[in-house]
Amino acid sequence: MTSQPSARRLRIGVDVGGTNTDGVILDPSLASSSPSKGILAHIKTATTPNPSDGIITAITSMFTQLSATHPNIHPQHSIASVTIGTTHFVNAVIERDPTRLSPVAVLRLSGPFSKHVPPCVDWPEHMRSLILGYHARVKGGLEVDGSLISDIDEDEIRHHCQKIKKKGIKAVVVNGVFSPIDAVHKQEERAAEIIRRELGDHVDVVCSKEVANLGFLERENAAVLNASILRFAWRTIREFREAVRKLGLKGCPVFITQNDGTILKGEKAAELPIKTFSSGPTNSMRGAAFLVLQQQQQQQQQENKKKEGEEAMMVVDIGGTTTDVGLLLPNGFPRQQAAYSELAGVRMNFSCPDIRSIGLGGGSIVRKDSNGGITVGPDSVGYKIDKEALLFGGSTLTTTDCTVLANPDITSIGDASLVKDALTKEETEQFKAIVKSKIEKIIDNMKTSPDDLPVILVGGGAVIAPDELQGASKVLKPRWSEVANAIGAAIARVSAVVDTIKSTETNTEKQFLEEIKKEAIERTIAAGASPESVEVVEIEMLPLQYVENKTRFIVRAAGDFDFTQSDLSNAEEEEEEGVSEDAVDEDSLPERQAVTDPNKPKASPEAAVDVLTYTPTVRNRIWHISETDLAFISTGCYILGTGGGGSPYASMILLRQLLRSGASVTVVSPADVPDTAAVGCGCGAGSPTVSIEKLQGDEMMQAQTELYKALLASHSSPLCSNSSQGENNMNSEKKTKATHMIALEIGGGNGLQGMTLGASTNMNVPCVDGDWMGRAYPTKWQTTPVVFNERSPIWSPIAVADGNGNVLVMPRAASDAAVERIIRAALSSMGSQVGAADPPVTGAEMKRWVVENTVSQAWRLGRAVARARAMNRLDEVAETIVEECSSGGGGHGRHGERERGAKVLFKGKIVGVRRTLRTGHVYGECIIEGTDVSSDDTVTTTMTSGGKRTEGAVSGDEQDLFTGKRIKIPFKNENIAAIRIPENDGSNGSGDDDGKKELEKQEDVLAIVPDLIAVIDAQSGEAVGTPEYRYGLLVIVLGIAASDKWTGSQRGIDLGGPKAFGFDHLKYEPLGRFVKPVSVIDEFDRSIE
Fold it and tell me: At 880, which helix (H) or strand (E)?
C-alpha cells in the first residue's frame, strides 16, 4: 500500500464530454517512480444534462475508490486542485442557443478604417442577428509602428454608451487597430474604463487584445463570441465551484483547461471562456504522453538516446467511428493549426490543436464486394456496437469483429465463436492490411520529418490497430488510455504568449527576442506558474513584407502551477464572494429572440448555390458579378498570387458587402473596350501583415480622386500627350476620367481592386477582364506596360493615400523604377499601407499590353476548387486546375505533355522554412519532401469540365514519382522557382544551412519565373501564401505557363525572369505552352437580340 502523500499534493482531473465524463485522481510525485503512474483512482461515467451533477458523481465515485485503496488519504486535506475540461461553452456556440448567448455591442477604435466591413460581416446570418446588437466606429487605433492613427475621444465613446444602454445590452467588445502591440497608449483599456463608468460594473467589457492576436476581423470575431457567452460562463464556473464545495473541498482551486494544453484559473476562464474551446483533444494528447513517459525514459536510457522532451510523439485516438491524430511537439504541447480556425461558420485566429480525422473506428463497418475485395468504413455502427456487431449477437460485420477473428488471443471482447466464419484467411489478411495502411497514412501525413517517431494508441477502439506501424519507432498502447483526457487535464500547465511587432532599426532581433522571452516568462509567473519551472517553449519570428526593419515576434512560455501560493484558497473564496449576482444569476439569461440590427445590409446573402451546375450571368457581353462569382475569383486570385500578393479574404469581404448593399459590379472583355477608352488602375501597396489588421477605408477612392484632380489641373494626362492620332478625340475632362478599370495584378488581394473601384457605388465603370501581370510580382515595374516600353515612365503621374488624411501626388518621375523606390520609401511614413491610383491608358494601349482574361482564369480556378469540395474530391483538384489552365475547361482540345499550359510539379510535405527581410521584401526558402497527400480513399474520381465524375483505381505511380524526393522553393514575397534537391545535397532540410550548398543547377529546375509556381493546401485546395508556409503542411506545387506578354520578348524575361530575382546562374525554360484563358464572357454570353 502506498504511503499517504503530503498535504495538498493530489490533483483531480475531470473531462466533461458530450457522452461521457471522465475523471482521475493523480499524485504527480509518483508519476515516474510508480507502476501506477501516480493514478490513485479513475472513472468513466455518463455526462449529465447539468455537467456539475456529473462532476459530483465522478469525483464521489473516485473518493470511494480512494478510501478503499488508500484509507489513510483524506481527500478534503489532500486535494491540491480540481481541473476541468469541458465542451459546455463551445456547445453553446455550436448549438446557437439563444438562452446561453447574450447580445453584444462592438465599439471599434479604428478611425476611418474598416468602415466598409462591419462587425460579424462574415458570419452566418442567423448567428449575426442572434448576437450582434449594436456596433460603431470611433476614433482610435495604432499604426504598425505603434504611433497613433488617432487618440480615443471620451465624449464619442460616452455617446455610444447611451445607445447601448437604451438597447439593454450588457456585453461590450472593444477592438482597436493593432491593439495587441499597444503597450503605451492602452487605448482598449482606457475605452473599457469609460464604458464601465457609463454603463456600470454589471456590464461585461471585453478587450479584444486579451482574447486573440493580430488579425482585426478574426480577433474581433473571437472577442464577440467570448463576450456573448460570458454570463453563461460565469454561471457555469460558479456551478463547478459549488460542486467542488459540496464535496467538502472548500478552498480548493478550480481550474479550466484551455485548448493549448494549459490551464486557466476559474475566474480567468469565466472572463475568457473561448479559450476552453477544443481543449478535449489537447487533454487527450497530453494525457497519452504522460502515460508513456516512464516507458519512454527507460528505453531512451537503455539506447543512450536524447532525453525525453526532445522527441515529438504522435497520438492516435481511435474511437467507435473515427480515428483522430495529433502531433505532440518536443515542447510538450500539441502542434497548432494554421493562422485561422473556424467554428459554427465563424472565422477566428486563436490557437486550436491540429487534429486530423479519418473514418476508421472500432465500429466501422466491413464489407465484401463481388470481386473478393474488402472495404472498411467510413460508416460505423458507433455507440450501438454492443448490439449490432457480430461479437454481441448482431448482424453487422465491424472492425472489432474482424480484429478478434484475426487475433485469437483477444478473449475479453464479446463471443469470438460468433465471428469464426466471418472472413476467409485471405480476407482477414486483406482487412489487416487496409487498417494498417489507413493508420500509417494519416500518421505520415501528420509527421514533420521523415524520421520515425513514437506512436501512442489510445481510445476504446485502439484494439483494432496493429502493434507495428511503418514510420513508428515504437507503438505504445498504455494502460488507462480510456481516461487520457482526464489525465491531461490533471497535469496541465500554465502558459502565456507574447505576440508583438518590433522595429529592428536600432536593436537587433536577438536583443528584442531576449526582452520578449523575459516578458513571456513574467506573464507566465503572473498567471500562477512557479518561477523555477517556467521555460520558453515556442519562438517564431516573422519579418513583415514591404515594411523596413519590422519583425513580428511570437513567444510562448510555460510552467507548472505554483500550489505553494499562500493566498490561493482565500483568493478563490474572495473572488466568488465578489462576483456580481447580476453577472451569474439565472434571471440574467432570459429567453430571447434574435437581435434586429438596424445597421445590417439591406440585401440578403445569396441562397445556397449548386456549384456543379452554376452558370454566371452574362448579358450583352457584360458579366454581372454575383457572390458566387466573387467567391470563385477570390480563391483563384490567391492561387495566381504564387505565394504573394496577400490573402484576398479582406478584399473579398469588402466587395461582397458592396454587392449585398445593392451595388452592381460588371466585367467586360478587353476586346470590347473602345480604343479611345480611358482605362484606369488602382491597387493597394504595403504589407499583408498590416492589411489583416488595418482594414481598408476610403484610401483607394481617395487616391483616384486626388490623381484626377492633379491630371485635370495640369492637363498632364498621358491620354493627352501620348495618344496616337484617332485616339485623342476626348475633351480634357474625359481624358482624365476613367471609363474602365483594370487590376494591376490578378494575384492576391489586388486582383479584386479593379472590380471594387469600378463598382456602381464607387466609380461606376466596368472592370476589364485582364491585368498588367497575369500573376503577382513584388514591384510595380514588373508589369506588362513596362515590358512593352512604348512610353516611359508609364506609372506617373501617381497618387497614393493612406486613408487617414495624408496624400502624396507624384506628377512626374525619371523612371518606373524610381516610382517604385519613392513610393516604397513613403510607405513607412504612411502606415505601411496605402491606396495607389495609376494614370489611365487608352483602350488601344490596354489591348496591346493586357494579360487577357485573367479574371476569367481566376474564376475557373476557384470553381475547380469549389467543385472538388462539393464532390469531396480534393485529391483531384490539382489535376483539374491543370486542365483548366490547359484547355480552359471549355471543351477545347488537350495538348501533349510538353504543350500543356500547366503541370503538377510536386506533392509533399513542408519540412523546412526560413525567412529573412531585405529592402522591405521577405526572402526565403521552403523545403518540401515528397509524400502521398491524397485523402484516405480507395477510389479516385476525375472531374470533367462539366462537373461530372469518372471513377478509377488509385495508381501508385504518382506516389512513387515524388516519395523520397525533395524540392526547394526560393521566394521573394512570391515564389521564384521550384528546384529539385539532389539526393547527395548536403542540406538538412531545415532551411538553416544557407551558404553550405552549391548553386542550383539548370537540370534541377522544375519551373522558374516568369512561369507561375503556386503552392496549394492538399487538404483544402486553397492557395498557401509564403507567410503561411509552416512545417508539416501537406501541399501540391503547381506550375502554370506565363503569358506570352512576358515570354514573347527578351525584355519580358529580363524583367520578370530569374535575373530580376538574383538567379543569374539559371535561365528561363518554359514549363509548357501558354494557353490563353477562355473568357467567361465568350462562353456564357446570353445576348439579347
Answer: helix 877-887
Say how far apart CA 463 and CA 411 lie, in whole Å: 12
Q: Report the range of poorest mean pLDDT among 644-658, 708-722, 1074-1088.
A: 708-722
Please state the φ and ψ torsions of residue 628, each to the nearest 5 degrees. -65, -45
Q: Which three cell numbers stand for residue 267?
A: 475566474
Q: Is 1067 left (phi over 0), alpha (psi -120 to 50) or beta?
A: beta
Given the C-alpha cell 441562397, which residue does it identify?
607
What residues form DSSP beta bridges with 41? Answer: 25
**Are the beta carbons of 322 and 359 closer than 8 angstroms?**
yes
Q: Is 822 helix (H, G, I), strand (E, B) or coil?
A: helix
> Cell for 629?
462569382
Residue with cell 447611451: 162
Calpha distance 525→567 (Å, rounded): 15
| CB count in 10 Å sphere of residue 162 | 10
Q: Is the pLDDT of residue 628 over 60?
A: yes
Task: Tell me the pLDDT band of 448, cut-offs 50, 70 and 90.
Answer: low
Mean pLDDT of the chain, nearest integer: 83
Residue 617 CA to residue 328 CA, distance in Å, equals 49
Find the farthest-apart pair of alpha carbons in the chain and give their distance in angstroms, rounded.
104
Q: How far apart are the C-alpha atoms of 967 and 908, rounded to whole Å? A: 9
Rounded-to-integer distance, Cα 755 and Cα 680, Å: 12
Question: Using one digit for the tens of pLDDT, what is the confidence trace for 489-521?
Answer: 888 888 888 888 888 777 888 888 899 999 999
Measured CA to CA in angstroms, residue 955 lies from 483, 611, 883 at distances of 40, 28, 19
Amino acid type, 566? S
Look at residues 84, 26, 588, 596 and name the one whose alpha carbon lies nearest to residue 293. 26
Pairwise CA distance, residues 17 & 279, whole Å: 10
Cα–Cα distance measured from residue 727 to residue 407, given in angstroms and rounded to the nearest whole number: 85
Give the integer Cα–Cα distance in Å for 790 and 745: 20
d(CA 867, CA 944): 10
Report how far residue 851's alpha carbon sits from residue 745's, in angstroms, rounded to the nearest whole number: 10
Determine the pLDDT at residue 580. 42
Please, which residues bridge with residue 44 across strands?
A: 22
Instruction: Please give the sequence-ordered ranges of beta strands (E in DSSP) within 560-593, or none if there are none.
Output: none
Cα–Cα distance measured from residue 923 to residue 1062, given in angstroms and rounded to the nearest whole number: 11
pLDDT in tens, 224-242: 999 999 999 999 899 888 8
What's the mean pLDDT in 782-796? 94
φ, ψ (nearest 5 deg) of residue 833: -160, 125
- Classify residue 1032 as exposed, middle or buried by CB count within 10 Å of its CB (0-12, 13-18, 19+): middle
* C-alpha to C-alpha distance for 123 and 128, rounded to whole angstroms: 6
Answer whether 687's CB lies under 8 Å from 214's CB.
no
Asked if 190 contacts 152 with a C-beta cutoff of 8 angstroms, the reply is: yes
The Cα–Cα gap between 174 and 187 comes to 9
User: Is-contact 977 1005, C-beta < 8 A?
Assistant: yes
**pTM of the predicted model as reported, rounded to 2 decimal places:** 0.80
